[in-house]
Design brief:
Laminin, four-stranded antiparallel β-sheet, ten-stranded mixed β-sheet, NELL2-like_EGF, Green Fluorescent Protein, about 1350 residues, mainly beta, about 0% helix
């Protein structure tokens, strides 16, 4: 190639000047590694497109060189010797550096061409010896196209002119090379890794001359570099290929695998599906658990656990005998009693009270004989009692005085079922309580209130539904019909150990927390009155809330749905939700003055009056019979298994709690309190301090070691002193107490929930405590429904307590229960992102993205590591990343394995200036000498071939081959003789000629040619019959004004008008070859219509949402149509009936016009005649992978046509007035001009061997061969229609093919859009703004 196109210097001639690009080359290459390659190439001259066509024949093999190898070609020279007329020969020894290795080889080359004999005398002295100098040779291998590209600077000079080497005396830097320039000058060029003007060179960017792939980039690292692939490509940087998986639609839980056609998706381990959708697979489906065990999925697979009543590792389980009391949860001051059913019950020991799980020592009522003021209240404490003045009084509680303003209700005469309300300074009024009627001084049960005497369950609320009717509904935590309510076992608070003055809040499926109510302090399990809270004892109405307004004052405000001053609250008749019959799991919404609606809360389903938990029918665990303390695990599509939770034992259908305190590590002086079957807490006993695990006696409490009588209590009176006082019923000094025989209550028979009051010297009476009812000898807890008229938010639930109720916001809401607002769900709260990734919450899910320095899908991120960052290469070596790590290569001038490199002894001949046909020898004085090779003569710096004149004896059709000091002549291929005389062989006269039977053989000198006969096509060695379409089978349709016309390609047949509509302007035409329909756009009416090919069955498909519809194309395989809109500047698609319309592209468009689709290849093409930047683009037919096909040498690209037979895309350009074509793959080298000088071409169509286009200036349709030319002919058009011809389309039959959408719509419910590689994309339609409409 250097000889063919080298820059001539002086009187030099390059190969193209001598041959015109028509010659035969024979090249024999022999490598020092043993390989040999014979190359024969026929250069056939320049064709009509400016290219040289070459027929090449390569035989042999070459040394193996991988795409990532470093290859360097040094500057060199070659001598071309003219043996005789039309024959040039060259022989050269060359070397090639591959990484750290040097491969030597020889080249024996002969060039034969037709040389004019008349010029021989004038050029002989010049052509006998020609020298070609080659510098700056670069090699680049493009793996994606499997092409080796190279470039060099070549210069040809006549060797006979003895041109001096200008580089003999140069002033180039030692880190530069001297390059001849012009006829007598030179230039200096800095070596790789250096920069400067050549005379001065300094170290430069190591990336300046890198070997990275064209689709990669260079990363400098000190004096070395490494390569990495660009985004969208993969490889080691030295070789990069398109990463087809970069934009894959694989599921996040799938891996993408590239294929030759595109990519495939495979679900990761632990997931199942087609790769595009992957679901978690159940590792327990095929488990090896014992028959008496259950399987629990884990991240690593699954784990087996033996069922209750069995012991083992889960894979082998044996039946065990268990005493239900072995690990009981009873209090240390309680006894466990086994039951026949395998469970147990806990009973507090004598002297303790409680539920058996928590027992506390019985305490005396310290307020029984208190010393409080009559206008004060007594509050019992641990070691005694405290006194607090009543509202309206002030003092220390033992002495209380009325405030300045007297309370007129202090001594009221209201009925016991009425409340007193002060109306003036010294007057008051009485109001009967709700459910009672009267004047306040006398109150009786209101017969009009149907709930006055209801039969609702004690754990239900009564709601009046009519004048004399009521309804009952179970309270939260209970289930039933309202008349009978039972504890809901699914509510962990149903059976809790919280204090009576605390509320229970479920914190998990089987756990809860206790917190003291307002006005009380403690840990929730034990709560005491907060003396600093003025609301602890208030006179607010039962339907009001108390709010502390100062240290010892409070205010009352009626709850929502009630009106009044807070001390007296009545139902607000304006609020229809005040008394509603909505389900407890529903919200009430007022719809009118006296009407309301009920709607079930999230997670529930029903009519609002009755709500049930919403279940998923596809989940077998949605409705299960597992125990409330068990987990349900789906084992098949419609089956499930139950296994008891941690802290419980049983078969899953029945689970009993285990006692976590059974094997506690609490201090002996501490108590263990179980919070759940698996959680407990240790707290030191009274008189001890510590964390519960370690407790020590409290030496600061003087009562720790007191001497009080066992029937006395110890009260600390100072830091180290105490006093003893006998308990009630005992008398003495406290250190000695004896039973008071005069007290009739000493041995009373009152109920434990009653107090004994002496009524005479030897008689007493029993009175039930507040909150209990009975005769005193038998007392039962009163069942009060505090939630009947609660003030909770409609998005909250009411939980009754012993003294009132508490409000808790429902799931998905937050607040204090009285006011709840929707919470913002953080989808990233429990994300599965990699630790080296960050989570981004979206409306319905979340996405994971790897952090900087990591790569992956966000769920799995791997650190991006430069393998050469910490390499062990020698300081005189370079590190090159590889797929397995890195490799080390010694720098030039060093030898070794890369990890250890040693300097090579200086080769004085390394950069010698000897002639290419001379040998260099180091001289003793430190220089070198040049000696011409055998067969050459000269001073070694210039050598001439001594055999030139000897070879003149060979025939012109023979090759002169040097042998030792002589030569021999050998006839060339296609000739026969002894070499001195060679005659042409007539291959066509010999039997068995290689030409096809439908081809003609033509003998030429030294060879022969084969040409297919008329009616056949091929290369002559293979010919096929040309099948041309019958003219009467072909026709065109075109748009002219308001009409669609049809014209046959057979000039003998007349055309006709097939569609006409007044007022329309038809711009684009499309044809459905499958159902034979015509589709067109009307820019005036802003519509898209269709009709049968004969003009019948006309219908408008789209009549809204269009601005300026122009081009239209039909995908006959997927049954879709595509169009451009230059008003809205977008491209849309819809089904052929106009349904499922979708906007595909709407950005970076100015004036989109023509559009064409290739449903076989999955691509669409369109023109944009933007006058500032015209272009032709293409994309997948779903709008993805958009790219510019042509954006140079364009003016006004209007029409567009695809030719499937030749894989060409052709277009008309009214700006350049040209018609051009190129390959559909977008290769710019395939672009050629069909017609260079049209008038005003607009639309274009392809049919058979011809192109047809409309011309606005001549108002005609013209035609020309697809191969081009300079002349075109007009097509005879029928009468009818007027104006310019906008669109031309050919009536053709459908190719016999299919795509991913042609069968069953590709499995899509709406739009099936084909893409490259035989793939398809299922798409939903969009609205007119381009926003997607949900679909299946």
């Amino acid at each position: 190639m250097a000889w063919l196109f080298a820059l001539p210097s002086g009187k030099g001639y390059n190969g193209f000047m001598l041959t015109g690009g028509k010659f035969r080359q024979t090249l024999n290459i022999t490598f020092s590694t043993g390989e040999q390659m014979l190359i024969t190439q026929d250069f056939q001259g320049v064709d009509e497109n400016g290219y040289i066509r070459v027929i090449a024949d390569w035989n042999g093999n070459i040394p193996e060189i991988t795409p990532s190898d470093y290859v360097f070609v040094d500057d060199h020279k070659e001598e071309y010797v003219r043996h005789r007329l039309g024959v040039i020969h060259t022989f050269a020894k060359r070397s090639l550096q591959v990484n750290d290795d040097t491969i030597s080889y020889t080249m024996d080359q002969t060039i034969e061409y037709d040389e004019c004999s008349a010029d021989e005398a004038d050029t002989e002295y010049i052509l006998n010896f020609m020298r070609v100098s080659m510098t700056e040779t670069y090699l680049i291998y493009e793996a994606s196209e499997e092409i080796l590209r190279f470039s060099m600077i070549g210069k040809v000079t006549p060797a006979s002119e003895q041109i001096d080497d200008p580089c003999v005396s140069n002033n180039c830097d030692r880190n530069a090379q001297c390059l001849p320039a012009g006829d007598s000058g030179f230039r200096c060029k800095c070596n790789e890794g250096y920069e400067g003007n050549g005379q001065t060179c300094t170290g430069s960017n190591p990336c300046a001359q890198n070997s990275c792939d064209v689709n990669g980039y260079c990363i400098p690292q000190a004096d070395r570099y490494t390569c990495a692939c660009n985004a969208g490509y993969q490889g080691d940087g030295y070789t990069c290929s398109v990463d087809r998986c970069a934009s894959s639609r694989c599921d996040p839980n799938a891996r993408c695998v590239e294929t030759t056609q595109g990519y495939e998706c495979y679900c990761n381990a632990g997931f199942t599906g087609d790769g595009f959708r992957c679901q978690v697979s159940n590792p327990c489906d095929n488990n090896a658990c014992d028959a008496n065990a259950y399987c629990v999925p884990t991240q690593a697979g699954y784990q087996c656990y033996c069922n209750d009543g069995y012991t083992g590792n889960g894979y082998n389980c044996q039946e065990s005998v268990v005493n239900p009391c072995d690990n009981n949860a009873c209090d240390v001051n309680a006894r466990c009693v086994p039951s026949p059913s395998g469970t147990y019950q806990c009973f507090c020991n004598q002297g303790y009270v409680g539920n058996g799980v928590n027992c506390r020592e019985e305490e005396s009522d310290h307020c029984a004989n208190n010393n409080c003021d009559p206008n004060a209240r007594c509050v019992s404490a641990v070691f005694g009692y405290q006194c607090f003045c009543d509202p309206g009084y002030r003092g220390d509680g033992y002495t209380c005085q009325a405030n300045n303003a007297t309370d007129p209700c202090a001594n009221h005469t209201c009925d016991t079922n009425a409340r007193c309300v002060a109306s003036a300074q010294d007057t008051y009024e009485c109001y009967c309580f709700e459910g009672y009627t009267g004047d306040g001084f006398t109150c009786e049960v209101d017969p009009a209130n149907p709930c006055a005497s209801n039969t609702c369950d004690a754990n239900a609320r009564c709601v009046a539904s009519a004048q004399d009717a009521y309804e009952c509904s179970c309270l939260e935590g209970y289930t039933g019909d309202g008349f009978t309510c039972e504890v809901n076992p699914a509510n962990p608070c149903a059976i809790n150990t919280c204090d009576a003055n605390a509320r229970c809040v479920a914190s998990a499926q089987d756990a809860y927390e206790c917190s003291c109510l307002e006005g009380y302090t403690g840990d929730g399990f034990t709560c005491e009155v907060n003396p600093t809270n003025p609301c602890a004892i208030n006179t607010c109405d039962a339907n009001a809330r108390c709010v502390a307004s100062a240290q010892d004052a409070y205010e009352c405000s009626c709850l929502e749905g009630y009106t009044g001053d807070g001390f007296t609250c009545e139902v607000n008749p304006a609020n229809p939700c005040a008394i509603n019959t909505c389900d407890v799991n529903a919200r009430c919404v007022a719809t009118a003055q006296d009407a309301y609606e009920c709607s079930c809360l999230e997670g529930y389903t029903g009519d609002g009056f009755t709500c049930e938990v919403a279940v998923d029918p596809a989940n077998p665990c949605a409705i299960n019979t597992c125990d409330a303390n068990a987990r349900c695990v789906a084992s098949a599509q419609d089956a499930y298994e139950c296994s008891c939770l941690e802290g419980y034992t049983g078969d899953g259908f029945t689970c009993n709690a285990t006692d976590p305190c059974a094997s506690n590590v609490c201090d002996p002086n501490a108590r263990c309190v179980a919070f759940s079957p698996a959680i407990y807490e240790c707290s030191c006993l009274e008189g001890y301090t510590g964390d519960g695990l370690t407790c020590e006696a409290n030496t600061t409490d003087p009562c720790v070691n007191n001497a009080c009588d066992m029937n006395a209590r110890c009260v600390a009176s100072a830091q180290d002193a105490y006093e003893c006082s006998c308990l009630e019923g005992y008398s003495g000094d406290g250190f000695t107490c004896m039973a008071n025989t005069t007290d009739p209550c000493v041995n009373n028979a009152c109920d434990t929930n009653a107090r004994c009051v002496a009524s005479a010297q030897d008689a007493y009476e029993c009175y039930c405590f507040e909150g209990y009812t009975g005769d005193g000898f038998t007392c039962e807890a009163e069942q009060i429904n505090f939630c009947a008229n609660n003030n909770c938010d409609r998005n909250a639930r009411c939980v009754p307590t012993q003294t009132g109720y508490q409000c808790f916001c429902n799931q998905g809401y937050e607040g204090d229960g009285y006011s709840c607002r929707a919470t913002q769900i953080d989808r990233c709260a429990n994300n599965a992102c990699d630790v080296n990734a960050y989570c981004v919450s979206t409306a319905s899910a979340y996405n994971c993205y790897c952090n900087d320095g990591f790569s992956g899908d966000g769920f799995v991120c791997r650190e991006i590591v430069d393998p050469c960052a910490n390499n062990n290469c020698d300081v005189n070596a370079r590190c090159v990343p590889s797929q397995s790590g890195y490799q080390c290569y010694c720098n030039q001038g060093f030898n070794g394995d890369g990890f250890t490199c040693q300097a090579v002894s200086v080769d004085l001949c390394y950069n010698n200036r000897c002639d290419f046909n001379a040998e260099c020898s180091p001289a003793q004085d430190g220089g070198y000498s040049c000696t011409c090779n055998q067969g050459y003569e000269g001073d070694g710096f210039t050598c001439r071939n001594t055999l030139v004149n000897l070879c003149s004896a060979c025939d012109a059709s023979a090759q002169c081959i040097p042998e030792g000091r002589g030569f021999r002549c050998v006839c060339r291929s296609g000739f026969q003789g002894n070499g001195l005389v060679c005659e042409d062989i007539d291959e066509c006269s010999q039997s068995g000629a290689a030409c096809h039977r439908y081809a003609t053989c033509y003998n030429v000198r030294g060879s022969f040619s084969c040409y297919c006969q008329p009616g056949y096509e091929g290369d002559g060695f293979s010919c096929q019959e040309v099948t041309q379409p019958e003219l009467d089978d072909g026709a065109l349709i075109y748009a002219r004004g308001m009409a669609v016309m049809r014209v046959p390609l057979n000039a003998n047949k007349p055309g006709n008008k097939i569609v006409f509509r007044s007022g329309q302007t038809i711009v684009g035409l499309g044809y459905d070859c499958q159902e034979e329909y015509i589709y067109w756009t009307d820019v005036s009416g802003r519509t898209i219509s269709r009709a049968k090919a004969d003009g019948s069955s006309t219908e408008v498909l789209i009549s809204r949402g269009l601005s300026s519809p122009e081009g239209v194309a039909v995908d006959w395989l997927s049954r879709n149509m595509y169009w451009t809109d230059s008003g809205y500047d977008r491209i849309e698609v819809a089904n052929l009936d106009g349904s499922n319309r979708r906007v595909l592209l709407k950005t970076d468009m100015i004036n989109p016009r023509a559009i064409a689709v290739d449903p076989i290849g999955g691509l669409m093409y369109w023109t944009d005649w933007n006058r500032d930047a015209p272009k032709i683009e293409r994309a997948n037919m779903d709008g993805s992978e958009r790219s510019v096909l042509v954006d140079s040498n364009l003016g006004l690209p209007n029409g567009l046509s695809l030719d499937y037979t030749t894989s060409q895309i052709c277009w008309t350009d009214a700006g350049t007035k040209r018609i051009e074509c190129m390959n559909m793959n977008g290769d710019p080298l395939t672009r050629f001009t069909v017609l260079p000088n049209s008038n005003y071409p607009f639309s274009i169509a392809s049919y058979g061997f011809k192109l047809y286009w409309s011309d606005w200036e001549t108002k005609s349709i013209q035609t020309i061969s697809k191969t081009g030319g300079s002349e075109s002919t007009d097509l005879k058009l029928p009468r009818g229609g007027n104006g310019r011809i906008y669109s031309v389309t050919a009536i053709t039959s459908c190719p016999s093919t299919s795509n991913a959408c042609s069968s069953n719509n590709g499995g899509c419910s709406s739009l099936c859009l084909p893409t490259q590689g035989g793939q398809r994309y299922c798409a939903c339609p969009t609205n007119l703004e381009g926003n997607e409409v949900p679909c299946v």
